[in-house]
Amino acid sequence: MDNNFQQSSIYESPSNNYYAQPIYSSEYGQIQSFNNMDMNTQQQMYQTTTQQPSSIYQSSFQQPPPTYATALQSSSYPVPMQQQLPPVNGNQNLSTKNPTGPEASPAKGFEWPRKSVSLVCPKCGASVSTRVETENTLITLAFVLIFCCVTCILFWIPLCVSAFKKFLLCILSYTIFETQLLIDYHYARVFYQNQQSKICQKNISLNRNKTKQILFWTKIFSSPINTDYINNHLFTSWGRCGTNKCRVINNRNELCDSDAVIFHARGGIKMYDMPKARLSHQRYVLLTKEPPYKTTAIVGHLNYFFNWTATYRMDSDIDYRYFHWRRKDNVNTEIKSQSYLNNRQVRAAYMISNCYSHNNREDYLERLSSIIPVTRIGFCSSNKCRKKRDECLNELADTHPFFLAFENSLCLDYVTEKYSNVILNRRMIPVVYSKNSNLYIPNSFIDANQFSSPENLGQYLIKVVENSTLYDSYFKWINEYEIIIPDEYDYLCELCNKLYNSKEPYKIYDSIKKWLYIDAKCERWVSKLNKTIDISVDETMDYEDPLF
Fold first, then answer.
1. N or C: which terminal CB in the chain sees fewer CB atoms within 10 Å?
2. In this predicted model, what pLDDT tens digit does every residue of 61-83 receive, in sequence order?
């Protein structure tokens, strides 16, 4: 070890006869060369005498960190300064040495600052510092902090994204809607102050014998109205309405000549696209066959706007239902009953195109399928019937004694063609889930709403199939009642008659939101509760953006 240190502590002077001095000496100014040392005398490398330490030793405590470098004796020749080389990776494991020597201790009461201790090799310039420990600690803390932050972010992101989206959508919707209301207010103000005479400048004839014009202000869904077909199909002497005193138009330029203006609830009603003029004799009509949650939400804000409604509701001003039924004039009670079961096994089928309903019918049908086999046909299933609807029903009736005619909404008076199509087929018993049992032909259906759970309904269907007499009893209505499917445009005949009825009282809906949404009393089936619960009006109106 002494030999190694001797070699590393000698400064190789240039050719100008500089000579090296030992790092420490017993007396200041005395030269002791390692080359002249007697290795057998066990002379210590570091002097531990009680003499006052040299200036080099003293300065090592005053100027941290000390480095082990050769001390050059002053001479008449200029001594070049030794340059400290950068640390070498291979020498970073050198142990830190006490500058007082391996057998000596530093001055009494002195504690060497670990963070500032460094060792420099005079030959290769390698250094070791305890700062590495501090840097490693800081790096570890930094990684721990980053890990905690990332973990918290990943944990809270799923919880916050949904709330943030709703908040952002609420702010945007409110801003857009308020802006649109300001635009509408501006239109209304300008109209009442300046524009009425400019829009309808010609004299408006109020002759009750003139042909009444019915203007479709919006499209039906996304399709324009075929006015030629409707006028020829309805308003001719041989048409369905039996009169030619009405005419359907879709030209907005004829607004001032129109007696009725129709707005389809899914035809694109927009606040900025309303008529700029309205005459006292005109009637604004809301048209829809859809449930409230599929109605453009802006309709709920159009108070004091609509005079009449044409919907599926029984309390509508104009009847626009999917079907209606009536008792036959001559009931033949002598007709013998026939067997309708025909050895079919218990099985139910249903056809739907709306995969996500407003009333959670999917959950109900899923539980029912655990009791009896259920066949799903339609857009939401891999089983698709490419034939016409009646042909598909006939194929299903060959093997299915029941048809699940579940509507996509549980709202007041909402009953669609799902029930009427099965009734016209006359080979399957329709199973409905409805709060409108009075709209169905008596004893022609099974109401799932009368059972406490889907499982109980399934058990009853098994019981019906096992008893052919009980099954056939659901077809006795055929001898007493008949079902009527109206034409798609029959409501226009009633509208035309109302326009000519001088005794028709003036009417306006001061709160269309109350009539269309609140009074509908829509419900949703909850699987955990085995019953239906009310749906809030706000949830129903949030189906679409307010402007679309």
1. N
2. 444 554 444 444 444 444 444 44
